[in-house]
Amino acid sequence: MKYQQELKDSIRKALPDLDVVIAWSGGFDPLHATPHFIRREEDIDKLEIGPFSVHNLATYLPGLRGKKVGIVVKGCDSRSVIELLQENLINRDDVTIFGFPCTGVVDQSKIRKALGHTGKVDFCQITSQTVVVGAGGEEHKLRLSKVLADKCFTCQYPNALISDHFVGEKINPSAQSEAGYDDLEAFENMPLAERFAFWQKEMDRCIRCYACRNACPMCVCRDHCLAESRDPHWLSQEDNVRDKWMFQLIHAYHLAGRCTECGECQRACPMDIPLLLLKKKMNKEIKELFQYEAGVDPEATPPLLSFKMEEENIKEREW
Amino acid sequence: MAKVQFIKAADVKPWLAELAKEHRVFAPSYDGEALLFRPFDPAREIVLDRAATMPPKKTVFPQSEQLVDFTYSKDPEDLSRIKIDARETLPSGSTVVFGSRPCDVRGFTMFDRVYLTEKTTDIYYKARRDNTLFITLACASIENTCFCNWVDSDPCDSTGSDVLAIPVSGGYLLETVTDRGGKLLSSKLLVDGESKKEEAEKFCEEVAGALGAARDLSQAPEKLLAVFDNMEFWDEVSAKCLSCGACTYLCPSCYCFNITDETIGMKGKRLRSWDNCMSAQFTMEASGHNPRPTKAHRLKNRVGHKFSYYPAIHGGVTSCCGCGRCIKSCPAGIDIREIVLKAIDFKPAAVEE
């Protein structure tokens, strides 16, 4: 990544005043990165940014309240930071934000699908157009555009919307249109019975590990989640679609107008359940009703955090 | 000498169809993008060239199972007297799991030391364990996350299996491991496999070599205890942990559960469902005190249990089979190998005089 050295220098300067800086480093194989917590000068060398920097590191911020934390953010991640600030879940003075121009991150499921099974991965070379994966003595060449995350194709915010240090030149969004809800609209056009069957099938393989919940930067009840609560008793621990789906619906409702569509819920799911679809549905409704997009303006008040006697687009007196 | 047979790759499905007449048969096939052990269905493609997303843990240890159903009844003469009629709901029938990996199946031997002891027997576990047969497929494909050879196993390990299938030209060599496994090999689709034995041996040698050198974990039990009270160590290694249960639920050797009652009116059922030590609720006490209040405490338990506390009470056996699913499916990319090695290499800072 072009601005990696610049970013390292910027972190090096700021580190003496911070407890930790959260970034990414190489992961368990050449196709994965992992969140990297920089505490000491020597930790900086391991930092790597690029198309494998998939994790939304804002998830860690509420858990580090009270500490001086630096965080490296993609454009989409910065929206979660803004939303956390809007909700007073983190303190602006305690957070130092490092931004960089993001040209997109991969979707690991798409890579897995495109590559098929390769066994041990030996190396990976990424250019602006291609991903070359070396495995089992063979080279597999993929077009980067085939394996980028869906959210990157409709991304309007490739640069951090809030930052204290921005490395590199800001870039223009590459998204041609606001086609972000095309997949949702296609889904909504399906007959009810088909939509119902779709979710029954998808939710059936949920193992209730709650990686979706814990990876979500806006899921902030943490250790006090209704998923495990006996009182109130919203859910049983049975292995059935009803309870698993109920949890996802409760999660989605609580994210309406708060979700920044970072897609961490779906990325974290070991069962590859398309959870983002539920969140997008809520956001689409919020957009239509309140003309509001979460995590874009730190000064704005999220619609479900406010109350109006008369809503402009909800004519309940006419119902 | 164990009976050795051969099955053509194309005959696998017909063979499973035969077995399915008598047993519930599970085989790996895709559900969405997840490769899972699903009930055998001739219409589904069986995928054997890679390890499944989930081990076949559910076949013996369901995600949630009913232990007891109960009914309350009031004495009509004295309504303050309530009777409870409770009945065990034991599982029945037999199951064959085809295409599991040696690491997947070896995981159940970690369960056995806990659920089937001289002192106590878990009747629910036993009912399924005794009636579930594993036709294990030796591992042809090593991934970056594989480390079964670090934990005393190898890609052709038959521990815990009933039949071991080894890929050879044209199909699979089938080795009888247990007597009950031998009984599965009576199909007319199978032929004598003696001539393929050499090829199978060569396969096992090669694939073991592909794993690379194993790291020596013999010091892990002691070294993990040495850093037990070093919370700075655990805070650092757990910093990126999200405290979810993906690692635990995908683990072939994690066996912890929760018990809850679900009652509607006068009727109810008692459930046992998977639980995980990454959850804050896992150790939450009724008083409100939690002895493992942070994710650092919880991850310490997961690593410590597998590589130190379990071996301490079970003859030195590590409660990890090296399948690497916890690494591969961790949303934060935590690598358990890295933590264990870090503990082994940890040197306390020299105390200044």
Summarize the structure.
With 319 residues, chain A is α/β, with parallel strands linked by helices. Chain A is built from 11 helices and 8 strands.
Describe it.
The complex is a heterodimer of chains A (319) and B (353). Chain A has 319 residues and is an alpha/beta fold. Chain A folds into three domains: 1-104 and 155-175, no CATH class; 108-147, no CATH class; 178-319, no CATH class. Helix content of chain A is 31%, strand content 13%. In chain A, the strands form two sheets. Chain A has a five-stranded mixed β-sheet. The longest helix of chain A has 15 residues, at 276-290. With 353 residues, chain B is α+β, with helices and mostly antiparallel strands. Chain B has one domain. Chain B is built from eleven helices and twelve strands. In chain B, the strands form two sheets. In chain B, strands 3-2-6-7-8-9-1-10 form an eight-stranded mixed β-sheet, sandwiched between helices. A four-stranded antiparallel β-sheet of chain B has the order 5-4-12-11, with no helix packed on it. In chain B, a hairpin with a 2-residue loop joins β2 (24-31) and β3. In chain B, α7 (231-237) packs across α9 (295-313). Chain B starts with a strand and ends in an 8-residue tail after the last helix. The mean pLDDT of chain B is 96.
Features:
heterodimer, A: 319 residues, alpha/beta, 3 domains, five-stranded mixed beta sheet, three-stranded antiparallel beta sheet, 8 strands, globular, B: alpha+beta, eight-stranded mixed beta sheet, four-stranded antiparallel beta sheet, 11 helices, 28% helix, flat
Structural class of chain A: alpha/beta
> What pattern of helices and strands is seen along the backbone of chain A?
HEEEHEHEEEHHEHHHHHH
Q: Helical element count of chain A? A: 11
In this structure, how is the largest beta sheet of chain A organized? 5 strands, mixed
Uncertain runs of chain B? none
Structural class computed from helices and strand pairing of chain B: alpha+beta
Oligomer: heterodimer
Q: Assess the beta-strand content of chain B as a share of residues.
A: 15-25%
Q: Profile the largest sheet of chain B.
A: 8 strands, mixed
- Order of helix and strand elements from N to C terminus of chain B: EHEEEEEHHEEEHEHHHHEEHHH
Number of domains of chain A: 3
Instruction: From the alpha carbons, calculate the radius of gyration of chain B and give it in angstroms.
Output: 23 Å
Which geometry of chain A do the CA atoms define?
A: globular
